[in-house]
Amino acid sequence: MDEQEIRTLIERWADAVHTGNLAGVLADHSADVLMFDVPPPYEGLRGLAAYERTWPGFFEWQAQGATFEIVSLDVTAGADVAFAVALLKCGMPDETAERRLRLTIGLRKLDGRWTITHEHHSFPLEEIPAPVGESAVRELLDDWSVQTAGKDLDAMMAGIAPDIVSYEHAGPLQYVGRSAVREVCQAGLDTSGSIELTQSDLTVLARNDLAVAWGIDHVTVESPDGPTESRSRATRIFRHGPNGWQLVHQHLSFPR
């Protein structure tokens, strides 16, 4: 019963936001409400008066055609304390296909009724911090070394984008698409002995959803006639998407 009461309260609040009904937005909030909003200040806004001042500007922006709509809502209630988490469409129509506003609400039961005492609104950080991207690409390259040694072609392909363009050591001039690159990798793994791939002098730079890595590939193939070693130059471009970091271009060459 409490959870349904809270759900109705939050849905009523969201509808008031969508229609620009300030009185409805303020209803069911405590006098000492604390909100962490998308814009600063970082310490948040405390008190109903400060909370109220944030909405007129939002309503003006929303009147230009923006949407404010609950997509999912989960409520957990105790005897006198509760919280809710929600995802909302918040933005212009061309922004809300994938983008979601994250909302956490804290409530207390005061004088017998549920009251909002805390709101936290945020959007995910769309830019990937450079150290995070660079670390992820290095990890992907390390995984390829392990997968090469294990001759696990399927695992290797997971890190390669469907639209990859690869300049390989041998012709043709370019290999386009995952299937073409898979054939090249399969040929390289088709050896009776063990194979080892490592990189040295590796540099990785990442900016948001693109990363470039360059270094020297070392390949050692063990055969009945003994080991064969080669070193080549490698430049690789990665893109971050729904499937994580994937290789979209590589350029391999031997010096002449």
TrEMBL record:
Which keywords label this protein?
A: Isomerase
What highest taxon heads this organism's lineage? Bacteria
Q: Report a single Gene Ontology molecular function.
A: isomerase activity
Q: Does the keyword Isomerase apply?
A: yes
Report the residue ranges that make up the SnoaL-like domain in this protein: 6-125, 137-255
Question: Which InterPro entries has this protein been placed in?
Answer: NTF2-like_dom_sf (IPR032710), SnoaL-like (IPR037401)
Under the heading Pfam families, the entry gives:
SnoaL_3 (PF13474)
The identity of this protein, by name, is Ketosteroid isomerase-like protein
Question: Which species expresses this protein natively?
Answer: Kribbella flavida (strain DSM 17836 / JCM 10339 / NBRC 14399)
